Deoxyribodipyrimidine photolyase (Edhazardia aedis), 431 residues
Amino acid sequence: MEKRIKQSNSIQHRKNVLYIMKRDFRIQDNHSVILGYEMSEHNKSEFYILINPNEYNKNLNTRQKVFMRQGINEILNECENLNIHVIFNMLFNEVVYKYQIDCIITEESPLREAKLFHSILNDFCIDNRIALYFCDSHNIVPSVCLNKYIKSAKVVKENLYKYWPIYLSEFPVLKRHRYNKLVNNIPFTYTDINDVSDIDVCGGYTNGMKEVNKFIEEKFHNFKKLRNQADFNNVSNLQPWILSGQIGSQSLALYICKKYPIDDENTQDFLNEIFIWKETAEHFCRNECNYDNLKGASTWAVETLDAHKNDKRSEICTEKNLEKLKTKNIEWNAGMNELKSTGRMHLYVFIYWCKHLLFMTKTPEEALKLSFSLYGKYSLEANYPYSILWIMYSICGVMDQGFGERNVIGKIRYIKSIKAPKYISMWSIQK
């Protein structure tokens, strides 16, 4: 697992191992689980997994919290079969002292909240003589492989595919842990939030793989042709599971490449979604500290938006009016209605939705702020690098190039219409 693992200090360990699961909520095909398992087996010590949803996922909206927690007891069952300890809702320092931990593993993440946690964890481990490892179990190509900031999606794609053959490999099959005492994990329960009725999908690895099979059987053969046409809804719908780490993009890529030629146009478009754009987003957020504001855009984009900041808008909407679908733009309203009703929005509609906020707000800064606020409140895919990049790409041209100049939007890529009358009709009445 070269480059996938980074030891944050030089402390040696011989006792029990703790994996703090914060980002990749699965046992299957999880490099962090494999690392902890192999380390503890090597030292003939015990292996614990800590899951603390209340502490480590504060930015998630209610839908995302429910979706994530729906899969946690499935993790528990898999760990029972592998004789791995799972601990819920304890602080990591309490776990360390109670279970004689001298090695901690957690996942790499480019987001600032995670980096703050990593800093706190690093200081704790140094003070308490605990080995600390960060493992990139979320990406196929470890994010450190692209060690220089690249601002072109095309060039990032070329670099990712350069490393693709090195890191796209099968996962080892784990057996029952030999050195853990007999595991008796307590089922996970939560009472701080209620299930929400307006989610039409259910979290967990098994449910995610059912959605994978449904997509392959019903939609894959026309994915390239129809994925941008909202009337056909020919999208994978897999991002909620992938972004929350309930299924892994590496295992999905292996699965699809066994079934179809890699040069098949549908395969290529599917890999663009689950691999290229997802890991381009990781690269962007890792290298750009202003990943969610206008300072994170390229100079050309900032200049063109500034040059058109005084252009007349089609209308000026408050956040309240946007949220209540009270705009003149029926296509935008339809996208917002789908988002509010289901927690999802067709990707092409989402890009249009972001771009046209520029035409309904006073400034690009306000358009960005409202896109993050509204999408963050309702979407199952919000608050992850993937959706952050799509918002920044749509509104301020991140990872894109300049196009012909237009009113308000300047040289930012423009979408005039989603051209989807059936979609608009379906979502024109507030549900």
Q: What stands out?
A: The domain at 5-138 is CATH 3.40.50.620 (Rossmann fold). The mean pLDDT is 95. The longest helix spans residues 265-287. The radius of gyration is 22 Å.
